[in-house]
Amino acid sequence: MLDRLQGQSAASKLGLRSEEGYLMTGDLIEAALAARLRAYAPYSRFQVGAALLCEGVIHAGCNVENAAYPQGNCAEASAIAAMVMAGGRRIEEIVIVGSGEAPCTPCGGCRQRLREFGAPELPVRIINTEGKLVLDTTLEALLPWSFGPDHLSAGNTGEEPGA
């Protein structure tokens, strides 16, 4: 499923671009579900997938565990890394899916990672493994009183020169 979403061209292998440059939340849901199936979770068996939208392109990621537990990657971090690798810098929406009954919300570290590339009003949609919405919230609700790049002085924002 993820292969179909990521298209045929070299550029689209890093993400999916729609004809109009806009994607439906349904495409994000499909990408998150497909990413979850690729998760490497031999220890916890808790598979997570995430798909985010940046400038009309979907970037997906899954969790990748490691025998040295703190060295694993969360699905949200993997999706953000894919976005940055493709040149993206701003998250417009994210969909996350995990195993289990409870909504699979981002860990604290991933909430801060999302804040680095997203505004407080960033839509965060949590779905179940059937693709049904179980929580529709914002980054601000998940990370109140957040600290982000906009809090730093103009000369120290971490932005690349000329950005």
How do the strands and helices of this protein lay out in sequence?
Elements: H1 2-5, E1 16-17, H2 25-37, E2 48-54, E3 57-62, H3 75-85, E4 93-98, H4 108-117, E5 123-127, E6 133-138, H5 139-142
Parallel strand pairs: 4-5
Antiparallel strand pairs: 1-3, 2-3, 2-4, 5-6
Report on the architecture of this protein.
- This protein is α+β, with helices and mostly antiparallel strands and 163 residues long.
- It has a single domain, classed as Cytidine Deaminase, domain 2 (3-Layer(aba) Sandwich).
- Helix content is 26%, strand content 20%.
- It is built from 5 helices and 6 strands; from the N terminus they run H-E-H-E-E-H-E-H-E-E-H.
- The chain has helices at 2-5, 25-37, 75-85, 108-117, 139-142, and strands at 16-17, 48-54, 57-62, 93-98, 123-127, 133-138.
- Strands 1-3-2-4-5-6 form a 6-stranded mixed sheet.
- The relative contact order is 0.14.
